[in-house]
Amino acid sequence: MSLKKKDRLVDTALRLFCRYGYRATGIETILTEAGVAKMTMYNHFGSKEALILAALEKRDEEHIAWLASETQTRAGAPEDGLLALFDTLDAWFAGDEFHGCPFLKASGEFDDHDDPVHRAALAHKGRLLALIRELAEAAGAPDPARTAGEIYMLVEGATVVAQLTGDRSTAARAKQAAEVLLAAG
Amino acid sequence: MSLKKKDRLVDTALRLFCRYGYRATGIETILTEAGVAKMTMYNHFGSKEALILAALEKRDEEHIAWLASETQTRAGAPEDGLLALFDTLDAWFAGDEFHGCPFLKASGEFDDHDDPVHRAALAHKGRLLALIRELAEAAGAPDPARTAGEIYMLVEGATVVAQLTGDRSTAARAKQAAEVLLAAG
DNA sequence: GCGAAACCGGACAAAACGGTATAGTATAGT
DNA sequence: ACTATACTATACCGTTTTGTCCGGTTTCGC
């Protein structure tokens, strides 16, 4: 079955990309770890860049869906959605596999705004912002767009700081700041 | 004189690292752009990593000093220091050379917390947090440590978003959020 | 069981990588 | 003028990079 190999390839690639970086991770390493022959990979994906894009695409869907559902189950009432998001972040940061946001890392390594990888990262962040905006609207924020923008920036800040320092209290402290922002409307 | 070559090497290296990434930038490219022979570089710096560290060290001093002085001149009163910081950020983001924070990029590419490059990035961010805390204390914040932590996260978020999207209004929007945070004490 | 498609493993290519060796030139200070 | 030092230019080393080619094997649908 082709899907098994293809999926394992994408999963392994994403894990290694996330941990060691996109340029630092060689094709050979991915192939060895995934247990897949080189030509199999080059038949499924025409290039390393295509594999990167496939990995990011899968991660995009999965991560947004996970954030949404996890936040929804954590939030008791719709008004708590935005704050519950930071509890979800806390769970994310606390995981063993956490090595920062793969999209932020990608945008850092592929700085050119025309680069497909950068565009993929940008698109993901657009979806993240949209999710936050939905949460803001559900919470009945008076200015959802503005609130979402503020919370989003806090989310990115927390993500970066968590990866940089490894501090486990990062999400909780960001949540405190978010409480202040939301209380002010 | 050795200082001229050494300095130009460090400046060129930092500029290219910032734009194309650390791993993506080859030694040869730096040497060509700086107009320096290979052996000259390897006499000054024993390795590429040493050059990276030297570039980050210089950037660390310069950037912290620039942030501090620029913010001080922009702030009318000591109470405005924290808000003026975001005006400084705005000026930084608006520059042609802006390609994100080189330390965030470094920490993304060198994820291992024991890596000297990652440690250098962490140390810089510690100094940035210290600067923000000084501003918070000067502004008479009731809980300077907490306020500084919140503002710092906002700063990192704004920096990342500015690099990712290229949006020129990022710093201004972060400033709006900071106003809310500061008004709440 | 048969044919086709997927897969394997290893050899191979061409370029780029970080780093070294060497031989020779420019430029100081004394 | 002499000498120490900084620097240059080029060739080279071994490794690693992405990507290709190929002959043989496994696996799957029918």
Give a description of the structure:
The structure is a homodimer of 185-residue chains. Chain A is an all-alpha fold and 185 residues long. Chain A is built from 9 helices and no strands. Chain A starts with a helix and ends with a helix. The model of chain A has no long low-confidence stretch (mean pLDDT 95). The A-B interface holds A 19-21, 23-24, 99-100, 104-105, 107-109, 111, 113, 121-122, 125, 146, 149-150, 152-158, 160-161, 163-166, 170, 173-174, 176-177, 180-181, 183-184 and B 19-21, 23-24, 99-100, 104-105, 107-109, 111, 113, 121-122, 125, 146, 149-150, 152-158, 160-161, 163-166, 170, 173-174, 176-177, 180-181, 183-184. Chain A binds a DNA duplex (30 and 30 nucleotides) through residues 1-2, 5, 26-28, 36-40, 42-43, 47-48.
Compose a concise summary of this entry:
Two copies of one chain form a homodimer. Chain A contains nine helices and no strands.
